[in-house]
Amino acid sequence: TWEGETDSSRDPAEGNSRKGMTGSSPATQYMNTEKKRKKSQVEEARQCVESV
């Protein structure tokens, strides 16, 4: 879970700098979907930890 949290805290800055450079290009859209998927994976991991 800690690794996932550091990932999500690092992501916003990367996403912002990419948006500034490329606008809403396919690459940016891909990054956004990846971010959402990562977030849901982290949430699932949290739920698993809580249930244990």
**What is the tally of beta strands?**
0
Described by its quaternary structure, the protein is single chain
Strand content: under 5%
Largest sheet: none
Order of helices and strands: HH
What is the helix tally?
2
Secondary-structure map with pairings?
Blueprint (H helix, E strand, L loop, with lengths): L1 H21 L3 H26 L1
Verbal overview:
The protein is mainly alpha-helical and 52 residues long. It has one domain (2-51). Helix content is 90%, strand content 0%. It has helices spanning 2-22, 26-51. Helix 1 runs antiparallel to helix 2. The longest helix is centred in the last third of the chain and has 26 residues, at 26-51. The radius of gyration is 13 Å and the shape is rod-shaped. The chain starts with a helix and ends with a helix. 0% of the residues are buried. Residues 18-22 have low confidence and may be disordered.
